[in-house]
């Protein structure tokens, strides 16, 4: 069985449509846009008939920095939305949630263009997969779009624009702020596809 860490953003939504995992996990870890992400992920999972788990770990918000946490970014942050060890944390929590359901592969939405974050790189995905496989359950981690950018992923997935329009990419709020890096990426991707999302 395959599971997907479904943030509700464009990339994970396109992967949900393309890969059709049996279960998806969305995590509220104290990030400001959590409500919008959960809403988007719930709609998409429902439309695709994917079992959807929502985990609420909001005390983890105390560990955050930058745009996602509504806190000053750390000096070592490569981008304003950087949150220390976020993907490592979310993968571990999601893997723990889906292992009892029979999942043995967890998918994440890392792209070729996410390399400015160490935890968006192929070597990070491979290393974390080795850690998961080393433990009981023999879970593996896969980033099926790691060789693609956002536009290539959406084209490859063939996701209908009407479903993709539900995605929520804002780093700062429940509703798109239009100014953060996530919103700018969202709009640039739709523009490159020759589509208007709304």
Automatic annotation (TrEMBL):
One of its GO terms (biological process) is tRNA queuosine(34) biosynthetic process. GO terms for molecular function: ATP binding; ligase activity; metal ion binding. Pathway: Purine metabolism; 7-cyano-7-deazaguanine biosynthesis. The keyword ATP-binding applies. Keywords: ATP-binding, Ligase, Metal-binding, Nucleotide-binding, Plasmid, Queuosine biosynthesis, Zinc. Pfam families: QueC (PF06508). Gene3D superfamilies: HUPs (3.40.50.620). It catalyses: 7-carboxy-7-carbaguanine + NH4(+) + 2 ATP = 7-cyano-7-carbaguanine + 2 AMP + 2 diphosphate + 2 H(+). Its EC number is 6.3.4.20. PANTHER family: 7-CYANO-7-DEAZAGUANINE SYNTHASE (PTHR42914:SF1). Belongs to the QueC family. This is 7-cyano-7-deazaguanine synthase.
